[in-house]
Each structure stands twice: as structure tokens, then as C-alpha cells.
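Lab notebook, bench 4. The sequencing result for the construct came back, and we need a structural model before the next group meeting so we can plan mutations. Quick request posted to the team channel:

Model the 3D structure of this chain.
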Amino acid sequence: MARGGNMLGVGGARRHLGRKALRGGGPAGRIGGGTDPRAQKRALLRKLQEQRDEERKQETEQETEQETEQG
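Done. Here's the predicted structure in C-alpha cell form:
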């Protein structure tokens, strides 16, 4: 008996989806829409940078408060 003799379902999605959707033709052409991976990375990096800026701002405020209390 040959392996994989029953190939039911193979190619079914190809009939219902366009070529761009199958090949990943950009963010709009992908199955499910989704955002561009580069855009996701940019958003993540921007969010991380904003968090770090807030932390630095809080640290400097704490340092100035400590200096005013001591001086």
C-alpha cells in the first residue's frame, strides 16, 4: 500500500483564495488582513522607548526632590 494515497483536501484552499492571498502579497492581501511585521516592530519599539523615557523622567524628578530635601 502506498503512503499518502488518500490526498483528499489538497488544493482546496487554492480554489477559494486568490494568488496574492496565498503568496502573501502585502498586508492587505494576506489571509486575515493583519498588520505588516515591520509596522508591528516599529510600534513595539516606539512603545518601549516611551516607557523608558517615562522611567528616566521619574528618576530625574526623584533625584531633584532628594537634592532639594538635602539642600
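The radius of gyration is 27 Å.
Will bring this to the meeting.
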